[in-house]
Write a structure and sequence with these properties.
heterodimer, A: alpha/beta, four-stranded parallel sheet, B: Rossmann fold, 5 helices
């Protein structure tokens, strides 16, 4: 009966709203003298990071610790992975240590799915290759809801390196579930081949999309995943697809600017935009902790997960039937 | 889940989505009607004011779901007598429950503490039904994380007995002797459209196996 958070597409509208509403209540914890809850006492959460990350790993760590879980951080550097241990053997080692939840980031798309088949605990995808990053999408949706309220019919532009972006993929799926209209904007070389099949519109022209957007989400140009020339040079990319002050002025009055970080200032986003009042980029990081607390609580807090698709059995209490 | 807790009781917990409303209306007996509920609350409001000498430092905290509505009702009644605003809020206990691991994680309710917090205040916890006492224990834990009240008291609309912890209410609307097989359902205007306390057959064997009092209502969660 274990359930996982592997893809934003696995979440029903009810699941997504349950997570977001739970996060809303958990966010209020920040105002209290004691910012900690006893809920996951005695549960172990392993952060399994095969790829570099600062904000996601520390965010998950903070979230698990605020819920009183024991946290084991595992990074590929300095572990047996550098000696050639396979993902499966690493997973079984963690399983033997009694991990109730495993938060995994891996450079291979699909690694969390494989892991979910090998271990008994809940698996949370914290970014796999160019595939998905569901908690990022959840925290983005949370941030949007804080500024815009209900997302039904809201127009969201996701701009930049869509091809390599797991953030874009997860956001498109989740925002569609929540009723928003998403447009991905990129040069033709940075849109994936199957983009026509995505539940969103696409465009090559940023200036045409900006005036009718409630949210503009800039994506990082992922140089480390680029093994070919996707655009002539950085200056040309920046001129056509970068968000500078002049472009920001085209946005409606209430629109917000987002970026999942880390930013390439001057490339996809100008420094003055990133630091402007419309930018909610720092807030995204804050909200990340609340949203990840909600996910960990709903997956690990009870005797069974409160979210995610049922695996096989219908959602009834197996213990009470025994 | 990996850390499963075996449940020795074969009875499934009452399904929160089950058709409690129709059952409660057909099989349950109305032990308090709307005017009785109002009278009980009015008396409790006066008792609180009397016992706290005007209740200048009283802060009422309702336990979701129905305790919150009752707390606001008490605050209004007390305010009308003393001719001033009485502080009232809500205290969610979900994360502090001792039966969290027995069921899937549930949705959280709002904790709302008005004014300058709970430090130094006389906090009166308000709930609809006092049963095992476990909800109140969880509330005391939750309260402890918010600060240090001068004192804590407990007001409930119905005390149905069968305590499993050394907990006692300071203000009781109605002492209702029940059997463990029975189910008490509190309906309040704000939530259910009318005020009533219903008593009827339940499928619950031990108080700690039952959902908390406020989840026995027709609305469930």
């Amino acid at each position: 009966m274990t359930r996982h958070l592997l893809s934003a597409g696995d979440l029903s509208r009810d699941d997504a709203l349950l997570i977001l509403n739970t996060a809303t209540e958990l966010a209020r914890l920040a105002d209290r003298p004691i910012k900690k809850l006893p809920t996951l006492r005695g549960r172990t959460v392993v952060n399994l990071f095969f790829e570099d990350s600062t904000r996601t790993r520390t965010s998950f760590e903070a979230a698990a610790k605020r819920l009183s879980a024991d946290v084991i951080n595992f990074s590929a550097k300095g572990s047996s992975v550098s000696k050639g241990e396979s993902l499966k053997d690493t997973a079984l080692t963690l399983e033997a240590m009694g991990a109730d939840g495993v938060v995994i980031r891996h450079e291979a798309s699909g690694a969390p799915h494989r892991l979910a088949g090998w271990i008994k605990g809940s698996v949370v995808n914290a970014g796999d290759g160019t595939h998905e990053h569901p908690t990022q999408a959840l925290l983005d949706a949370f941030t949007m809801r804080r500024h815009l309220g209900n997302l039904d019919g809201r127009r969201v532009a996701i701009v930049g390196d869509v091809l390599h972006s797991r953030v874009a993929r997860s956001n498109v799926l989740l925002l569609r579930t929540l009723g928003a209209d998403v447009t991905v904007v990129a040069p033709p070389t940075l849109l994936p081949v199957g983009v026509d099949g995505w539940p969103c519109a696409y465009s090559y022209d940023l200036d045409a999309v900006l005036p009718k957007s409630d949210v503009v989400m800039m994506l990082r140009v992922q140089r480390e995943r680029m093994n070919a020339s996707y655009f002539p040079n950085a200056r040309e990319y920046s001129r056509r697809y970068g968000l500078d002050a002049a472009r920001m002025a085209m946005l409606p009055e209430h629109a917000i600017v987002m970026h999942p970080g880390p930013m390439n200032r001057g490339m996809e986003i100008a420094a003055e935009v990133a630091d402007s009042v419309r930018s909610v980029i720092v807030e995204q990081v804050t909200n990340g902790v609340s949203v990840r607390m909600a996910v960990l609580y709903l997956l690990l807090g009870g005797n069974d997960s409160a979210i995610g698709p049922p695996l096989g059995e219908p959602a009834i209490d197996t213990e009470t039937q025994a | 889940m990996t850390a499963a807790h075996p449940n020795p009781h074969p009875n499934p917990l009452p399904n929160k989505h089950s058709n409690v409303q129709s059952r409660s209306q057909t099989l349950q007996r109305e032990v308090l009607e709307a005017p009785d509920v109002t009278r009980a609350l009015t008396r409790i409001a006066h008792e609180i004011l009397e016992r706290t000498r005007g209740g200048a430092d009283v802060l009422l905290l309702g336990i979701p779901t129905r305790g919150v509505g009752l707390a606001h009702r008490l605050a209004h009644l007390m305010g009308a007598v003393e001719n001033r605003e009485v502080l009232v809020g809500s205290l969610d206990i979900t994360m502090y429950r001792d039966d969290l691991r027995l069921r899937p994680a549930r949705a959280l309710a709002r904790t709302e503490v008005p004014g300058g917090g709970v430090d130094g205040m006389l906090v009166v916890l308000v709930d609809d039904v006092l049963f095992s006492g476990r909800t109140v224990r969880a509330a005391l834990d939750a309260l402890g994380e918010l600060g240090r009240p001068r004192a804590v008291q407990l007001a409930v609309l119905v005390d149905r007995g069968h305590r499993e912890l050394p907990i006692k209410a300071d203000y009781v609307g109605k002492n209702l002797p029940t059997s463990l097989r029975e189910q008490v359902t509190v309906l309040i205007e704000e939530h259910d459209g009318r005020d009533a306390v219903l008593l009827g057959p339940g499928d619950v064997e031990s108080p700690s196996e039952s959902p908390p009092a406020d989840q026995e209502g027709p609305e469930g969660a």
